[in-house]
Amino acid sequence: MESQLGLWHLWEQGDFVTRATAALLLGMSLLTWIVIIVKALNIVRFKRDARNARDFWHSEDFAAGLTKLGNRPGNPFVYLALEAREANAHHRNTQTHLHDTLDVSDWITRCLRNCIDEFTASIQSGLAVLASIGSTSPFIGLFGTVWGIYHALMAISSSGASTIDKVAGPIGEALIMTALGLAVAIPAVLGYNALVRGNKWILNQLGSFAHDLHAYFVTGARVSPPGEAVNVLPMKKG
């Protein structure tokens, strides 16, 4: 409560620079939490999609596998499966393009890689904002503190009162800017690290799924990961 009163008093007593610095830090904090919440919800959805992808290979045919993946808009596993099927059909049915010099394995690999690269760019958008906020907000808060202390000392000098009770109040209020900068930076850094770990897990699952899709369309059967029993019947291409 006292810190809130101190921040409010600092806002009332501060000049344009102090208020602009405080408003900038508050805006950065709001942006940080928006990015963290939106990206965290996306990761939760993608993890659910990844769990559904594990049942894809226990389907009778490709169409049934797509049904098990679900129909949620933005599902990267559905998009990847459709891209692999389209790449295979396009390579097989087209005879007059330069990509005919590539075999079907190279062509499907290229298409799947492009798909994963697009998804990677999408899932990593916003992380640069968190990194920038986490690295700059402490210095912005420190700037606000230095500026506030300077004006506090000037006010004390002009008033002629230099007792501890006259100095502690203005200096303490200026130091709130440093605390505000840290309060913005810490969630940004922690959120960035958590989102990077979540994104890495999703991309690993998507890469494994793409590898299986490649093997399925090139050889007709999925490549089982190490330690997994080979009890999945080859699906019919559809």
Molecular structure report:
The structure is a single chain. This protein is mainly α. Helix content is 78%, strand content 0%. Mean pLDDT is 79; it is low at 229-234.
List keywords for this structure.
mainly alpha, 238 residues, 78% helix
Mean pLDDT: 79
Counting DSSP E segments of at least 2 residues, the number of strands comes to 0
* Tally of alpha and pi helices: 7
Name the helix and strand elements from N-terminus to C-terminus, one letter apiece: HHHHHHH
Proportion of residues in extended strands: under 5%
- Main beta sheet, described? none
Globally, the shape reads rod-shaped
Structural class: mainly alpha
SSE layout:
Elements: H1 2-13, H2 16-53, H3 62-69, H4 76-93, H5 104-123, H6 127-159, H7 164-219
Offer a quick outline of the entry.
The chain has 238 residues and is an all-alpha fold. The chain is built from seven helices and no strands.
